Automatic annotation (TrEMBL), chain A:
The keyword Chaperone does not apply. One of its GO terms (biological process) is defense response to virus. Mg(2+) or Mn(2+) required for ssDNA cleavage activity. Pfam families: Cas_Cas4 (PF01930). This is CRISPR-associated exonuclease Cas4. It comes from Methanobacterium alkalithermotolerans. GO terms for molecular function: exonuclease activity; iron-sulfur cluster binding; metal ion binding.
TrEMBL record, chain B:
Homodimer, forms a heterotetramer with a Cas2 homodimer. It comes from Methanobacterium alkalithermotolerans. This is CRISPR-associated endonuclease Cas1. Transmembrane segments: none annotated. One of its GO terms (biological process) is maintenance of CRISPR repeat elements. CRISPR (clustered regularly interspaced short palindromic repeat), is an adaptive immune system that provides protection against mobile genetic elements (viruses, transposable elements and conjugative plasmids). CRISPR clusters contain spacers, sequences complementary to antecedent mobile elements, and target invading nucleic acids. CRISPR clusters are transcribed and processed into CRISPR RNA (crRNA). Acts as a dsDNA endonuclease. Involved in the integration of spacer DNA into the CRISPR cassette. InterPro entries: CRISPR-assoc_Cas1, CRISPR-assoc_Cas1_C, CRISPR-assoc_Cas1_HMARI/TNEAP, CRISPR-assoc_Cas1_N. Its EC number is 3.1.-.-. It holds the Pfam family Cas_Cas1. NCBIfam families: cas1 (TIGR00287), cas1_HMARI (TIGR03641). Belongs to the CRISPR-associated endonuclease Cas1 family. The keyword Magnesium applies. Keywords: Antiviral defense, DNA-binding, Endonuclease, Hydrolase, Magnesium, Manganese, Metal-binding, Nuclease. Its cofactor is Mg(2+); Mn(2+).
Length: 171, 321
């Protein structure tokens, strides 16, 4: 048996990311109705990752969180590579979640997160503090509620037309 | 842009690095892997396991047709898109009689309305919509099938008025087709079946759980269900076009005492035009975006998924032109 808190933590970074973008996408993705394999933007993202940081290797932990690459200093530096900084909040919380996970599940205290935007040559540093940690706990609970309910009705937003689920949602 | 490859002659399919080659005594044709959507093999095909490994990795189906142009089977690669939740919903809608018959009727309704559109295009009056009214009273799948059969009988009878004299036919005869029109319908339908199957493969739907046709062990019967809606649009209209434009004539058939089949030349013409149609686009009303006919089949799968998930009730695709 796994405890409730354990169950809550069976959440992957993509879900945190989608939580900020679209609840319908979050629900469908979480129920394995996945469409990303056909998205040119997703392939572009993967390509960007493999070209920009050739020597770095991706880490998958507990089959749950995939960190683009890690640098070991006197603290642990988690890196996430993104295409553009338009969805900053979703990127930020995705990376905060990795930090949160490593801190609470693996007992690693000294962690710093860095968002890399190689295309625009920018970086952003992310730190997990008390209030962000509280946010994450709420988000995780909220994600659980969303995916255990009916499919949320899609809402038309600006990014719909670029989304891999566009046809699915609006047909 | 990925495309369908139709291999009409005998040959060998082999792999060299990340390219698949089709080789025989006349050609050595490279097919870059990321250009292949699906392969349709009409000739006899020998392939190396290395080629199959690569096709499996990329999720590319190979559909095989026999000497007569009939569908034999597919190399259906390991499923990559699986959703346990959706499969359970799919089965639930099969097991619950009310739910099953709802979907089955929708498939018949879609097929019938598209047949009606085809005939209307040629300004032919028909009884399809009045027979379709009988669908409301059906409580059994066999009754639904019966309505569908009556609609088709009416439709096939009207088809003669579109076809030139030498192409007229009495009734639909399969395995083997007795005359030219039956040969064209059989050939087109099995081609469409494979196309639909490839679309289903690229979704989370399980191709063996169907609603109008009985799920059987021998066929991916959900592809049969969805094909019904697209037969009038993609196969029948193509037949009228090819025959009336004299692009296909009696020379394109191989005839024997009790059967009639398309020959190589006829198949090539048919497939070329069929593929052109799949690629043709229309402006989709809901999406306000151009979509190809092939994509319409995928959208139909999405609509079915949404129905099964309870997001939106399924309405079959009906031509609006």
């Amino acid at each position: 048996m796994i405890s409730d808190s354990e169950k809550q933590l069976r959440i992957i970074g993509t879900q945190i990311n989608y939580y900020f973008i679209c609840k319908t996408k979050l629900w469908l993705f979480s129920h394995h109705i996945q469409m990303e394999q056909e998205s040119d933007l997703v392939s572009l993202g993967k390509l960007l990752h493999s070209k920009s940081y050739k020597d770095e290797k991706e880490y998958t932990i507990d089959n749950l969180i995939s960190i683009d690459f890690i640098k070991k200093r006197d603290y642990l530096e988690l890196h996430e590579v993104k295409k553009s900084n338009k969805m900053k909040k979703s990127h930020e919380y995705q990376l905060l979640y990795y930090t949160y996970y490593l801190k609470n599940k693996k007992g690693i205290k000294n962690i710093k997160g860095i968002l890399n935007y190689p295309k625009i040559r920018k970086k952003a540093t992310i730190n997990l503090d008390k209030s962000k940690e509280k946010d994450l706990m709420d988000i995780i609970e909220d994600i659980g509620n969303i995916i255990n309910n009916e499919t949320p009705k899609p809402q038309k937003i600006k990014i719909c037309r670029k989304c891999a689920y566009f046809e699915f949602c609006w047909v | 842009m990925k495309k369908n490859y139709y291999l009409m002659s005998d040959g060998l399919l082999k792999r060299k690095e990340n390219t698949v080659y089709f080789v025989n005594k006349d050609v050595k044709k490279p097919i870059p892997i990321n250009k292949i959507y699906a392969i349709y093999a009409y000739g006899s095909l020998t392939f190396s396991s290395q080629a199959i490994h690569l096709l499996a990795k990329e999720g590319i189906a190979v559909h095989f047709f026999n000497y007569y142009g009939y569908y034999d089977g597919s190399f259906y690669p390991r499923e990559k898109l699986l959703s346990g939740d959706l499969i359970i919903k799919q089965a639930e809608h099969y097991l619950d009689h009310e739910k099953r018959i709802f979907i089955a009727k929708k498939f018949v309704e879609g097929a019938a309305k598209n047949m009606d559109k085809v005939l209307k295009y040629y300004s032919l009056e028909n009884h399809i919509s009045s027979i379709l009214n009988d669908l409301d009273g059906c409580n059994k799948i066999t009754e639904v099938m019966n309505v569908e059969g009556r609609i088709r009988a009416d439709y096939y009878q009207k088809m003669n008025q579109i076809l030139p004299e030498d192409f007229e036919f009495e009734k639909r005869v399969k395995r083997p087709p007795e005359n030219m029109v039956n040969a064209l319908i059989s050939f087109g339908n099995s081609l469409l079946y494979s196309t639909v199957l490839s679309e289903i493969y690229n979704t989370q739907l399980n191709p063996t759980i169907s609603y109008l046709h009985e799920p059987s062990q021998r066929r991916f019967s959900l592809a049969l269900d969805l094909s019904e809606i697209f037969k009038p649009i993609l196969v029948d209209r193509l037949i009228f076009y090819l025959v009336n434009k004299k692009m296909i004539n009696a020379d394109d058939f191989e005839k024997d005492l009790n059967y009639c089949l398309l020959n190589d030349k006829g198949r090539k013409t048919f497939i070329k035009q069929y593929d052109e149609r799949l690629k043709k686009t229309i402006k989709h009303r809901e999406l306000n975006r151009k979509v190809s006919y092939k994509r319409l089949i995928r959208l139909e799968s999405y609509k079915l998924i949404k129905h099964l998930l309870g997001t939106k009730e399924y309405k079959p695709f009906v031509m609006w032109w």
